[in-house]
Amino acid sequence: MCVCIRVDYTGKCVSILVTMVFFGAKKVSKVDTDPQKIEELLTRGVENIFPNKDFLKKKLSEGIQMTFYYGIDPTGPTIHVGHLISIRKLAQLQKLGHKIIFLIGDFTAMIGDPTDKVATRKKLSRKEVLLNCKNYQKQIAHIISFSGSNKALVKYNSEWLSKMSFQDVVELASHFTVQQILERDMFEKRIEEGKPVYMHEFLYPLMQGYDSVAMGVDGELGGNDQTFNMLAGRDLMKTLQGKEKFVLVSKLLVDPTGKKMGKSEGNMVALDQTPEDMFGKVMSWSDGMIVPAYEIVTDIPMSEIETIKKNIEAGANPRDAKVGLAQEIVAMCFDVDAAEKAKNNFEKTFSKGEIPENIQQVVVAHGEVLGDVLVTNKIIDSKTEFKRLVDEGAIMNMETSKKVTEWSALVEKGTYKIGKKRFVRVVTSH
Question: Each residue of 146-180: pLDDT tens digit?
């Protein structure tokens, strides 16, 4: 038996907690140690593992139940397919019998993660944050289980971060150097460009890192854009708890230019969309995203994915592979029947030879004026042209079969046919 002393900074004063660690812990019979499942978990869609793959593989093969978590800051009301890459890894660990935690960063969301941001994030109020995350659990209930004997736990990091005193924060900050924080690419870029880097952004990795300490986990999962933050937690675990923390870094789903899925790119597949909208959005992805998405977002065997890749390289129409991908994603988020129905609906709407497969897509907010949207996105040249097209009955929403009859018409989601040859797909943001 070993007694570990841990300094805890979650209260008004610093307290010493005594943790009893028993060596030779009994194996938990319900933990699955199937070598193939573990290998799949640690390789498919994985970019890196800390400290290394072999060490984590050995621990997973011992049959001892461990605790892993994935955290998300509720900066918007929807979880999207990009998040599912790590959430699905969490689900695999749960199926193997390990404890999992879905952490909602209700406190850190108010600070704002500077990751990949060339400018400071807008800070959110607590009311905005809580409103954003109210449906998160429902959105991922098809992926991970929140019931049963090994149900996923949902935690909020305000539970410990909001209780920290200024003294606690200073003490926590003493474990990092300015040089360490400045190693972040986005900070270096901003400084080079003369853009401000605020102190609260410096503190973000400390806050996220402390989540691991507060929960006493064995490992954390996240995308490769979160590597710095996750390793900050790994350092704190070693310093404050003398414990090894595993970090499993997943690949990100990006377009051919390297950009992540997101609202600004117009390619985000949100989990609160209808099956039909979700199917159509996947079909709007570029062909270069097909094979990577099969690997990191589906359970299709890698041997089949390799065949799909070879067929596309040999000249097969990538549309067929994209239809299969869309079906897989919709079935995963809903069910097989919903996926089949969405496919049939898509083919009825878009396979008449009237609408090209690759058309421009724009993301707009509810309540915007259609004419403004078309001019701003350079679909048409001017308001004058828009009015003329409306008067001629030359603008139609192909999904509703309704012509636009008013100059002041508000935008609706769907695919618009403008004149005889122009098309644009409009997606409304939340």
Answer: 999 999 999 999 999 999 999 999 999 999 998 88
d(CA 208, CA 230): 7
Class of domain 263-350: mainly alpha
Residues in the chain, pLDDT under 50:
1-28
Q: Distance (Å, rounded) from C-alpha 383 to C-alpha 375?
A: 7
Question: Would you say 267 and 285 are in contact if contact means Cβ atoms under 8 Å apart?
Answer: yes
Give the C-alpha separation, 318 to 312, whole Å: 6
Residue range 2-250, CATH number = 3.40.50.620
The CATH H-level superfamily of 360-428 is: RNA-binding S4 domain (3.10.290.10)
| Those residues with Cβ within 8 angstroms of residue 143's Cβ, 6 or more apart along the chain or in another chain | 84, 87, 88, 91, 332, 333
Structure tokens at 387: 């009015």
The two structure tokens encoding residue 119: 């400018």
CB neighbours of 279 closer than 8 A, spacing ≥ 6?
326, 327, 330, 339, 342, 343, 345, 346
CA distance 101 to 356: 44
Domain ranges of the chain: 2-250, 263-350, 360-428
278 Cβ partners below 8 Å, 6+ apart?
269, 270, 326, 329, 330, 333, 342
User: Could you give the CA distance from residue 64 to residue 28 in angstroms, rounded to a whole number?
Assistant: 6
